Amino acid sequence: MKKKYIKLPSGGLARKKPGKLQLFLAENTSSDIPEQTYDFAAKQSEYNPRDNNVDYKLETFDIQKLAGFEVTVLGAGSVGSFLAYFLGAAQLKLNIIDFKDVESRHIQGGRTVYEATSIGLSKVDALKQKIERDHLGSSVNPLDFNVGEIPDGELLSLFAGSALVVIAIDDPVQILRVNDLAYSTVEFIQAALQKGAQSGHIAISVPFVTPCLRCTLGINSESDIHRLDSAPANSFDIVTVSQLAAKVVIDFIYSKATGQDITRWDTSKNLIYIANEKGELSPDSPGIIMEGSSKRPGCPVCHQQ
After folding, report:
1. How confident is the model at residue 58 (pLDDT cuts 50, 70, 90)?
2. pLDDT value for 10
3. Is 90 exceeded by the pLDDT of residue 92?
């Protein structure tokens, strides 16, 4: 009998059979959480930072309202592991995708959230153990896959069931592929470090409202993205970027859960630059710079409608 093979997004071939992700999606085709979207465009015009009546006040924040919302995190390395761990406090349902195992180098210098007991485990299983142990009520669905080997249809199904998607992978080809697939489907953020973690950024994408990731970062192809796998970095700088990204995720989901405006930050700006030390963009000291971006004429991703 002739065996059937399918071509993977990465260009390789695999035997055609139901995979773990496909079976998971088949069993989880509906969600108990009502679909809600944040009216980003409308809120931009209403936002007034001087109006104390719309301040995002901590005392009105009820973390229980976030319980059960589904977030998909792509990547469980330095930024991804910390970010997912921070999100665990909100009792979210986290789909975490990564195909690598925890090695001894991953726990050196506090570069990741993993512990010595995690060595040898897959990153996603190690995160599941740690998050569900430390954050009661949280739920982690560990998906031990290379994003590049997940077919478009299965990724889209996963995105469609998520309140938000986080991109924390290093593969330039897959970063752009995920952007192109997710842009019209779901809000997502990309959280990334820059060389030496001296700085980082958080790019925010809202379907058909903000520019896509390509336009936001001013890139045309994967060659414009430089990989930083295992580059030297201060763990405190990694945590700074991861923690701020987690706050952005929580703000979006809280708005979906309550209909409450996001006023903690200026929603007219969708690129957050984090300076971890004094530099050209932040000449006096570390700081946060928020910028807006525009859709480039003729962009095939931004101009789908």
Report:
1. very low
2. 54
3. yes
**Closest-CA residue to 244 (of 133, 158, 142, 168):** 168
| Residue spans per domain, the chain | 67-291
Q: Report the pLDDT value the prediction gives residue 264, as an integer from 0 to 100.
A: 81
Of 44-53, 95-104, 166-175, the range with the lowest mean pLDDT is 44-53
DSSP assignment of 123-147:
HHHHHHHHHHHHSTT-EEEEE---G
Query: What are the φ/ψ torsions at residue 251 (nearest 5 degrees)?
Result: -60, -45
Count CB neighbours of 127 within 10 A: 28
C-alpha–C-alpha distance, residues 94 and 40, integer Å: 24
Q: Is 111 helix (H, G, I), strand (E, B) or coil?
A: coil
Distance from chain centroid for Cα 241:
12
Pick the CATH number of 67-291 from 3.40.225.10, 2.30.130.10, 3.50.50.60, 3.40.50.720: 3.40.50.720
Amino acid found at 138: S
Average pLDDT, whole number, for the chain? 82
Q: Which two tokens stand for residue 206?
A: 């809202």
Q: In the chain, what's the furthest Cα-to-Cα distance?
A: 72
